[in-house]
Amino acid sequence: MKRIKKYTLLATTVALALGGTLASAQDFKKYGIDKDVPGACSYASMSKKDYKGRTLSVITHAVPVMGEPTDLHAKQFQELTGATVNVVHVPFGDLFQRIMIPFQTGQNAYDVLFYGSLWSGDFHDYLAPVPKKYLDTAGMKDVTPTYRKVATWGDTMVQYTVDADRNYLKYRTDVFNNPEYKKKFKEKTGHDLAVPKTWEEYDEIANFFNGWDWAGDGKPHFGSAEVTKRDDLMFSAFIDRASAYAKNPNVKGGMFFDLKTMEPLINTPGFVKALEMFVKAKRYFPPGGDNFGLGDEIFSFGGGQTLMSYTWDDAFVQAMEPTSKIRFKVGSSPLPGSHEVWNRITKKWDHFDKPNAPAYVTWGWTSAVAKASKNQDMAFDFLCFFSNEANADHDLQIGRFGINPYRNAHFTKSFWADKMGWGKTVGDQYVDTLLTIDRSKNHVFDLRIPGVNQFMSSMATGVSEAMAGQKTPQQALDDVAKEWKQTVNRIGVDKVRAAYANVVKLEDNE
Predict the structure, then answer these.
(1) Can you give the residue ranges of every domain in the chain?
(2) 228: closest CA among 165, 170, 168, 286?
(3) At 182, is the secondary structure helix, strand, or coil?
(4) pLDDT, tens digit, for every residue of 47-95?
(5) What torsion do the CA atoms of 415, 418, 419, 421 make, to the nearest 10 degrees?
């Protein structure tokens, strides 16, 4: 999931020059692509379709994130095929209900849907399976195994992959490599200054670099920018921290719930320890950092105010904009981990010599075709076109589009080093970080179950209460666990368990 990004490499996206007849493959360059890539989803293939007199209804997020590429490719598809494509833009806070209510009331409101994949637990019964001819396309076959799993419910792919999200660590390489700072850090802490491998190391480094001018610009700078605003994705930041202590790779059957009993695990020692540390972390936030939304985190790290941050790609992309004062001074790494991990079976802490660092595959943008759609042929052709190799290659270069690497081809290092202009050092490290996450055998996935918004809202409220000092971390998470249990009972234990089994299957690598 991504928010507004200002990094813009190709201005040609807004210069569509639509109209006229396509006479040759060279004409496709007017759409801003370098060249058409042959295949079932290509510009050339779509130009042979005849959808005149037919209308496709699409619902998507507000412009620019996901909304802008939806508009762009809808206009292209309309010209290529003769179809009429109506696109409805909805703010994120309203998007779930605008899709779900027509589903529940039996209305055929939209043919194509763009939404956050964490809602698949609520939506999957209303989605059309992706037909085999699209599964067999080169572009779909190149989607990484991790994100094919994200698009699948049970054994059936019901979502069309157009994006991939993962959370990772961002940090200032110029500071970590500074000999003077290395010496001072060693003298103060007794430890070598290095990219943190554990959250304890992260906190120690952030604390040391908090509140003084380590950037040399005459202004105070700070240790860490973190998403702490209750209603602005703070639950994902908490999961980033909690996974290291609560996701034991040797214990199967669920991190958020015990799959057999469906008892919530949110108040067990691993989560509580993470929340205790999250509360203490406020000491090295920038001013106002205890109420940062994702946008604040992006501009705090990306603008050079803070040493480190974590969550989505946005802050890193912001830092690597051509106009950024810290361009080429940033690095990426998988999330920190922990040497001590709670074992809910033995009720003890397990020690790991190598820190346990689960890779968090966060909910990203996805797309689907409504099962009730009368235009499934045209709808799947549109998604096939939207994500064709030429369009995906193009969209990855437009930061504000909110589309990140999801195919094996997207991890070609020369693309990031040369075409994106990131250079070999930053580009190669970025690719290596993302590949490490994708190829991990120790993943945490979002809680994709019916009522997921209620579960996440409850957790965010509990974490916020602890952050504000209104409750102890244990009290706050005990109350969250009670609410979770009530929500499970209200929705139906068997229904929630059946959905959660899909998440556990992914996390247990079954």
Answers:
(1) 11-161+363-404, 168-247+285-353
(2) 286
(3) helix
(4) 999 999 999 999 999 998 899 999 999 999 999 999 999 999 998 889 9
(5) 120
Strand-pairing partners, residue 57, are 86
Listed in sequence order, the DSSP H helices in 137-286 are 138-141, 145-150, 173-176, 179-189, 199-208, 234-246, 269-280
In this chain, the answer to whether the domains covering 11-161+363-404 and 168-247+285-353 adopt an identical fold is yes
CA 491 distance to own-chain centroid: 27
Q: Which two tokens stand for residue 358?
A: 């689960």
Confidence at residue 23, expressed as pLDDT on a 0 to 100 scale: 36
The token duo for 145 is 């195994």
Could you give the CA distance from residue 365 to residue 97 in angstroms, rounded to a whole number? 16
Q: Is 475 helix (H, G, I), strand (E, B) or coil?
A: helix
Secondary structure in 3-state letters for 258-323? CCCCCCECCCCHHHHHHHHHHHHHHHHCCCCHHHCCHHHHHHHHHCCCEEEEEECCHHHHHHCCCC
- What is the rounded distance in angstroms from the CA atom of residue 85 to the CA atom of residue 316? 34
pTM over 0.70: yes
Residue % of the chain over a pLDDT of 90: 85
Lookup: tokens for 146: 């991790």
**What confidence tens digit (pLDDT) does each residue in 279-309 have?**
999 999 999 999 998 889 989 999 999 999 9
Beta bridge partners of 55: 84
* Cα of 507 vs its chain's centroid, Å: 17
Which of 503, 507, 508 has its CA nearest to residue 154? 503
Q: Which helix (H) or strand (E) holds 87?
A: strand 84-90
Rounded to 10 degrees, the C-alpha dihedral 155/158/160/163 comes to -70
Cα 75 from Cα 85, distance rounded (Å): 7
Q: Select 11-161+363-404's CATH number: 3.40.190.10, 3.30.2130.10, 3.40.50.10490, 3.40.50.1820.
A: 3.40.190.10
What Rg value do the Cα atoms of the chain yield, rounded?
A: 23
Sequence-separated (6 or more) residues with CB below 8 Å from residue 347: none
Nearest-angstrom CA–CA distance, 396 and 81: 24
Please say whether the beta carbons of 254 and 226 come within 8 A: no
Q: Is 480 helix (H, G, I), strand (E, B) or coil?
A: helix
Burial class of residue 351 in the structure, from the number of CB atoms within 10 Å of its CB (0-12 exposed, 13-18 middle, 19+ buried): exposed
The alpha carbon dihedral of 460, 464, 470, 471 has a sign of positive
CATH superfamily of 168-247+285-353: Periplasmic binding protein-like II (3.40.190.10)
**Residue (of 282, 169, 294) closest to 231 by Cα position:** 294
Distance (Å, whole) CA 399 – CA 183? 37
In percent, how much of the chain has pLDDT > 70? 95
